[in-house]
Amino acid sequence: MSKRILCLLLAMLLLCTLVPAPTVAAAGTKLVALTFDDGPGPDTNRLLDGLKARGAKATFFLVGNRASGYLAQIKREYDEGHQVACHSWDHSDLTKLGNSDVKAQFTKSYAVFDKACGSGTSYVTRAPYGNANDRVRNVVNTPFIYWSVDPQDWKDRNAKTVKDRIVKDAKNGSIILVHDIHSTSVDGALQAIDVLQAQGYEFVTVNELFRRRGVTLCNATTYYSCGESTTDLGAVQKPEITYRAVNGGIQVSISAQKGATIYYNTSGDRFTAQSQKYTGPFLVSSPCTVYAVAAFNLNGSRSAQVSQKLTQDGFRQQAKTPVVTIENGVLTMRTDTAGASLLYTLDDTDPAVLARKYSGPVTLEPGVVVRAMAGGDQFSNSAQVRLYYSVRGNVFVDVFPGAWYCDAVDQVSQLGLMNGLGDYRYAPGDSLTRGMMVTLLYRYAGQPLKNDNKRTNSFSDVPNGAYYAQAVEWAYRTGIVNGYPNGCFQPNGKITRQELCKLISCMMKYRGFPLPENSNMTAQFSDGTQVSGWARPYVNATVKAGLIKGDTGGTLRPNGTATRAEAATILLRMLAYEKR
Ligand code: ZN
Predict the structure, then answer these.
(1) Separation between Cα atoms, residue 156 and residue 141, nearest integer Å
(2) Is 82 a residue of the active site?
(3) All domains in the chain, ordered by first residue
């Protein structure tokens, strides 16, 4: 069985089984394909104007060696929805050429056509003089399109004659052969279109003639017409662009009829086989226009182009983060975005999911985690605010239940030993400075220097008026600190854990609760040998008393810095030690 017969059988089988109930268009839909050979030529632009004015599509079987001089016309043919096809490089009788010469007739032509249509475009074939055989068809390996109506326009250069012959012979499914290198042929063809359109004929490309009738064109196979079938799958429908505002921009979706490929861009560039194919919704983050076409083949089987402008109005404004205050257990919220709603939860769940709408001050139970945001239909949601209204009535943005230091920070805050840093910020992970630690101890001691502004220390780096100045003066007088040998105190230096041990030991002695001496606690830590000689008695004493502990890895980190969260814990242990 020849390849062609197999192909035909397959096509018929497909028709019977796979083609879904074709839409049978308005009774009498008559499709014809007008084809123009041997161009382009000086009359091609005039022909394209005439086709455009009539809403007619055609197929152009171009000769490759003429094409270079007419790239603008070929581009126009392709862009205006006509079909570009190949009629060999130099109009040779292909049956008289060897295989490699036949091949070259087409590869050379395609390279020129691609300059106008884009690489990847597929071109059907018409052999010059209609001369081909199985060998030629298999070498070229595209569908071969011949004709069923021949008005002999190359012989009789008379527009009326050409028109009359086309009108007389054309019927549903016809492929009509004309040559756009003769101006009489261009005139005759345009006049024939007017007559046949009035009789209900629609002028489509070769690709569309067969697709709409549900016929798949096969390679190396010759077609003379599409037959009298009235099956009509309809013209290629325009794609539909829809969009919706989402966080971060606009999500664009494009839909088209089943089986069609959607090509799109935001540049407005012409569509070729290399253009971006749509595979699913995409995000656009700034105003632009989205262009799209649907196509079964961009070369002559495509929809009209559609576009959708996405203006700034389409992008939802993000609501500003609300200002949330908790004072004396009363929650108040406001936003600077007019029209935005305030949403909140009291159980640490996401307010974007299930929230209460804020309408006025809310009295809180202690121990709740508040989450709040601004949003609403016309806005994208603001960033969220998360606050802990503690069991002791403190408010934190960075201390939450579940943290190991949460209760200690809550307690020292309530006792007034440690203050936050403003805006409900406690900064539990921040390193503790020497000035801060001495201030904590001073508060612990009850701020005994209240009305005494005399200064007995001579630390050059402790300015009068610094928040820690009075605390340092007190610590100096009591002997808890004595500074560095160079006369500095380094109030902004980060306190090391072994320095902390010395301060705590001296403090407890001053308070009348001296820590146990003469132990060797450092030996149990893997990094115990890193404790400096001067610090060893203090480290031993504070560890023995349980005021300082190693971390879970069995290390003491004597030269590591202490955090504000650790300081809170140690202050509570000191209080407990005094109450033993
Ligand atoms: Zn020809």
Answers:
(1) 34
(2) no
(3) 3-223 (3.20.20.370), 240-315 (2.60.40), 323-396 (2.60.40), 423-578 (no CATH)
